[in-house]
Design a protein that fits this description.
This protein is mainly alpha-helical and about 180 residues long. The protein is built from eight helices and five strands, in the order H-H-E-H-H-E-E-H-E-H-H-E-H. The strands form two sheets. A three-stranded antiparallel β-sheet has the order 1-3-2. Strand 2 and strand 3 (about 70-75) form a beta hairpin. Helix 7 (about 130-145) packs across helix 8 (about 150-170). It is elongated, with a radius of gyration of 24 Å.
Length: about 180
């Protein structure tokens, strides 16, 4: 089965709960084993995908599964066709080539220097956040998750942009252009 990245941008899919997303993907996987047709039997489907219940009517309503005249269900928005070996190998080779060109990823550094370049970038972006505190949060979070990046400065800048957004959302009255001191 091949899921397309566009599914992550699908509005209806984004409205599903995490449990419903799991159920839907489970149904699509099951459809690959059943000639792209699922029986219209929620109890049987629940058993097969190991779910306690399925909101099949919601999936039908949103067009993720379609009712056919034979009273069997088939998926609609994703193809349940099994990839050929050649497709899988070609994709693996493309990923390998892409990975070989990339800078190697490393875990969070023990120390992270907030250089003048990064401080200037923060001022330019009108950051109202405490850079030292946010940097400490950034490093602690990524160390705890075992994150790996090829460019920690870029990851830091992304974190600071998000922190600024959260700060403005939580403090709407304080929309100044203050950059809190580093020390």
């Amino acid at each position: 089965m091949k899921l397309h990245a566009s599914l992550l941008q699908d509005y209806e899919f984004s409205l599903l709960t995490d449990a419903e997303k799991y159920q839907l993907i489970g149904l699509w996987l099951l459809a690959t084993q059943l000639n792209n047709k699922l029986p219209d039997n929620e109890k049987w489907l629940c058993n097969k995908i190991q779910a306690t219940r399925i909101n099949l009517s919601k999936f039908k309503e949103l067009g993720f599964v379609v009712q056919h005249a034979s009273n069997a269900l088939a998926d609609c928005k994703q193809s349940a066709d099994v990839e050929t070996e050649a497709e899988t190998e070609a994709e693996a080779e493309a990923e390998e080539k892409k990975a070989s060109r990339k800078k190697p990823e490393t875990t969070a550094p023990e120390t992270f220097e907030i250089t003048k370049k990064l401080t200037d970038w923060s001022r330019e972006k009108s950051h109202s956040i405490n850079l030292l505190l946010e940097t400490e949060k950034f490093l602690n979070w990524h160390r705890s998750k075992g994150s790996k990046y090829s460019c920690w400065e870029s990851a830091w800048r992304n974190w600071m942009l998000k922190a600024e957004t959260f700060y403005k959302k939580d403090n709407p009255a304080q929309n100044g252009n203050k950059l809190k001191e580093l020390v």
